[in-house]
Amino acid sequence: MTTGPSQLTGGQYNSTPLVLTDQQEAALQLDAAGNLKTTATIVAGDIEIGAVELKNSTTDTRANVLAASTAAQATDTPLVVALHPSSPVPAGTNNIGDVDVLTNVLPTPSAAAGVGIANVFSAALETGHVIKASAGNLYGFTGTTTSVAGYFLIFNSTTVPAAGAVTPIEAFFCGAFGSVSREWARPLVCATGISIGFSSAVTPFTKTDSATAMISAQAV
Questions:
Q1: Residue 142: φ, ψ to 5°
Q2: Pairwise pLDDT comparison (170 vs 30), residue with the higher score
């Protein structure tokens, strides 16, 4: 059995891109580094190739993005992803089609007040504290006790319920002279208000007032 000469599929580099007409053939086109040059086919709402931009105006049309892509390829510059919706995004939103624009994914240290969440805390030992007197999200809390063990009870309420039978949405036991702390990656939603109480009762469904705790929390 004889083996003939190898047949290689070759490519060609052209500093000036070719312009072909119907039925013409040409070699695969390479860039100056020998990499195969390709052009993406664009479908409405999909990822487009060109300069990195988040398109959000009537002038940022698909045709403009395609032109930027063609120009980038003609000069052999690296291609990167550009996302944009088929129509402008409404003012005040940061959603690009089905792609959410995430900010501060890796935040840098900052002294700006908007980067953090203000702490609401006890000024003295108490049995309960209103964290927010309206609907909000609880991101975290810390409770510290003195000589009494008991439960820190979280309520979806604009006030701290009175002693007696209660229905907290969360309960955390804490020993005497101890602390308990909790943070939520996704905040705890409270549709009415946010309050935290401390109870020395042996069950989280009964509140026995005991002004022996310090409470601090972060909510918006």
A1: -135, 135
A2: 170
> For residues 96 and 184, is the Cβ–Cβ distance under 8 A?
no
Burial readout 154-183 (b: 16 or more C-beta within 10 A, e: otherwise): bbbbbebbeeeebebebebebeeeeeeebe
State how far the Cα of 164 lies from the Cα of 160, in Å rounded to an integer. Answer: 12
Residue range 191-209, pLDDT digits in tens: 999 999 999 999 999 999 9
CA nearest to 95, candidates 105, 106, 85, 104: 85
Give the number of residues written for the chain.
Answer: 220
What torsion do the CA atoms of 122, 126, 128, 130 make, to the nearest 10 degrees? -30
Within the chain, what is the greatest distance between any pair of CA atoms? 97
User: pTM of whole model > 0.85?
Assistant: no
Say if CB 120 and CB 218 are below 8 A apart: yes
If you search the block for the tokens 């007032």, which residue do you land on?
209
